[in-house]
Design brief:
The complex is a heterodimer of chains A (about 110) and B (about 120). Helices cover about 0% and strands about 50% of the residues of chain A. Chain A is built from no helices and twelve strands. In chain A, a hairpin with a 5-residue loop joins strand 5 and strand 6. The chains are: A mainly beta (about 110), B mainly beta (about 120).
């Protein structure tokens, strides 16, 4: 079955430190990969996506993600965390030649002042 | 302003009473979708639509219906709601560029409670 895994329910990082939110996927073919962020009482907002090309993609608010085909991963990263980055982060994948979208369960990111 | 709107934002109802949650987008997007968000389960796709009169099931379609008579609207219908449909619902839309489903734009959410 096609799936997306976010292995950490919660990640705690001190402000100013680098952060990583992990995502791995299991789909057939070459997928389209996305990261979305959800702030409290809000809908989801797009952060970045990988469709094709350079494996390192840069997105909003200083976030970036690296597509690793051999490890089927698409980890979200930021060099220096801000308290305002605290939110719920979702990885999503659109499998190749499929119109469904599969989301991970989400990772809650806490940035500690 | 480009946006996806949902109504109502909050709804408390009783088991078996038919309800409709409306979704509308003003971006001329082809693709529209409904999700439910539950603690520990993330977002799960209920139904999606590639264009007018074209709809298909997501991962959790049981107990839901949708229609796409106009490009901008994609209502979610619960014919006979049950308590296990208590959830936070999101509508989303995206352009479909060159055959790919691109970035999704999400509505603000509808919190539904079925008693």
């Amino acid at each position: 079955a096609q799936s997306v895994a976010q292995p950490e329910d919660q990640v705690n990082v001190a402000e100013g430190n680098p952060l990583t939110v992990k995502c791995t996927y299991s789909v057939s073919g070459n997928p389209y990969l996305f990261w979305y962020v959800q702030y409290p009482n809000r809908g989801l907002q797009f952060l970045l996506k990988y469709i094709t090309g350079d494996n390192l993609v840069k997105g909003s608010y200083g976030f970036e993600a690296e597509f690793n085909k051999s490890q089927t991963s698409f980890h979200l990263k930021k060099p220096s965390a801000l308290v305002s980055d605290s939110a719920l982060y979702f990885c999503a994948v659109r499998p190749y030649r499929d119109d469904k979208i599969i989301f991970g369960k989400g990772t809650r990111l806490h940035i500690l002042p | 302003e480009a946006q996806v709107t949902q109504n109502p934002r909050y709804l408390i109802t009783v088991t078996g009473k038919k309800l409709t949650v409306t979704c509308s987008q003003n971006m001329n997007h082809e693709y529209m979708s409904w999700y439910r968000q539950d603690p520990g389960l993330g977002l799960r796709q209920i139904y999606y639509s590639m264009n007018v009169e074209v709809t298909d099931k997501g991962d959790v379609p049981e107990g839901y219906k949708v229609s796409r008579k106009e490009k901008r609207n994609f209502p979610l219908i619960l014919e006979s709601p049950s308590p296990n449909q208590t959830s936070l619902y999101f509508c989303a839309s995206s352009p479909r560029l060159a055959g790919a489903t691109d970035t999704q734009y999400f509505g603000p959410g509808t919190r539904l409670t079925v008693l």
